[in-house]
Amino acid sequence: MPQITTDFSAVGKILEEDIHNTHGLLLLTKGTVLTPSDVNLLLGHKVSSIRVSTPSDFKLFGPKEENGESITFQIYDVLGQYEETAEKYVQAMEQTRELFSKVTEVYIPPLQQFTNAFFPMLDQVIKQTGIFHPIYLVEGSENYTYRHSINVGILCALIAKLMNRTREEVILMGQAGLLHDIGKMLIPQHILMKPTNLTSDEYDTMKKHTIYGHDLLQKMEGSNELISLCALLHHERRDGSGYPHGRRGSNIPLECQIVAVADVFDAICSDRVYKPRTSPFEAAQLLWKATCEGQFNAEIVTRFINYIALLYVGCRAVLNTGDEVEVVLIHTDEPMRPLVRKGLEYMDLRFNRRVMIEKMIG
After folding, report:
1. How open is the CA angle 266-267-268, to the nearest 5 degrees?
2. What gap in Å lies between CA 52 and CA 34, rounded to an integer?
3. pLDDT in tens, 116-171
4. Which pTM value belongs to this model?
5. Of 208, 210, 224, 264, which sees the most CB atoms within 10 A?
6. Is 94 or 62 the better-scoring residue by pLDDT?
7. Pick from 326, 325, 286, 328: nearest CA to 305
8. What is the C-alpha separation between 210 and 237, in angstroms, rounded?
9. ∠ CA 269-275-281 to the nearest 5 degrees?
10. Are 284 and 266 within 8 A, CB to CB?
11. For residue 191, how far is the Cα from the chain centroid?
12. What is the DSSP string of 132-161?
């Protein structure tokens, strides 16, 4: 009966004793299989340690990653103080996976079903725009396709809100982001999940997901032309270097340009089967570099990266030097290179160009 610190590593384990608060009120009984809600209850009553055991058939939220933690567990962990958001995110992920699995060349579930799965979580994030950023602490590529779709939907809605769009437009952008990669459901799995570089022929096949997605969404009950266009054009770039049509500048609808920015940012910040994630600050740097090269819309990217950077004030990070630091101040002229602190020592990354934030850790 090991005694452990009360945290989300206890989820799924069995309490080996009754737990009372400081006033003698019974909180949980011996034999309880702990849930995230139970852990939050204990933390709320300042129960610092508990005695638990692990059942022989214990399986934490399904398949494990190589790092020993499932994606679902990590979501509850990083969003611990926002338990309701964590629950809605996991529910949206599971329901989105189920809906995506129903997609065939001749059938796609109605838009309303995707909206019903996605909107409860989106609505909460729109009301409290700062609660989403811890999701980029999650490691592992499990359920990447579905998490990426959900994340891009959230980011598209947030960008639309930052650009002062109406609530109806914010919701529409969330839907467009959620469904931007729906065409990947028609790409062969051995290509979609290949852990190494694609061959030229495989890459040509992968690029067809934009066309497949457009065609599917044209058939979708309740969809509209804008959602279909976002699926078709989210890999187009303002300098003409994108696909499938090589469109340039204003020939790419602004909504599709918003999806493009959200898509690239989330992909860089997430572990994929063939590439590990990088930090939101590095992702912002790469986005800004590509914007200066003419690929992305500067108005969209500027608003977005300033918003993203400000969310991380007070958070901990690891530099490419290996040092663990705290983000202290975001500079408006260079939000990707903040002032950081290690102990009593401060470092302004604007004046240390070789040093950068490698990953966020809290």
Report:
1. 90
2. 9
3. 999 988 888 777 766 677 777 777 666 678 889 999 999 999 999 999 999 999 99
4. 0.77
5. 210
6. 94
7. 286
8. 14
9. 25
10. no
11. 22
12. SGGGGG--S-TTHHHHHHHHHHHHHHHHHH
One-letter amino acid identity for 202? E
Q: Which CATH number does 3-53 carry?
A: 3.90.105.10
What the block records as the tokens of 357 is 């934030």
d(CA 294, CA 282): 19
**Mind giving me the DSSP string for 238-282?**
TBS--SSS--BGGGS-HHHHHHHHHHHHHHHHS-BTTB----HHH
Amino acid letter for position 328: V
Q: Count how many residues are written for the chain.
A: 362
Look up residue 26 and give its DSSP letter.
E
Helices 71-78 and 83-101, axial angle in degrees (round to 10) = 150
Which amino acid is located at 257 in the chain? Q
Top CATH class, 71-277: mainly alpha
3-state secondary structure of 298: helix
For residues 263-268, give the mean pLDDT.
92
CA distance 238 to 87: 38
Domain residues of the chain, as ranges?
3-53, 71-277, 316-360
Q: Which two tokens stand for residue 170?
A: 């914010």
Q: Give the CB-side neighbour count of residue 351, counting CA atoms within 13 A.
A: 5
Residue 65 is classified by DSSP as P
Helix, strand, coil percentages in the chain from 3-state DSSP, rounded to 5? 50, 10, 40
Q: Which has more pLDDT, 159 or 63?
A: 159
Place of tokens 């990426």: 148
* DSSP reduced 3-state for 34: coil
- CA 86 to chain centroid, in Å, comes to 12
Task: Locate 268 and state its tokens.
Answer: 């860089």
Q: What is the DSSP string of 157-184?
A: HHHHHHTT--HHHHHHHHHHHHTTTGGG
* Assigned token pair, 122: 């989106």
- How far apart are the C-alpha atoms of 68 and 142, rounded to whole Å? 12
Those residues whose C-beta lies under 8 Å from the C-beta of residue 161, and which sit 6 or more positions away, are: 126, 129, 170
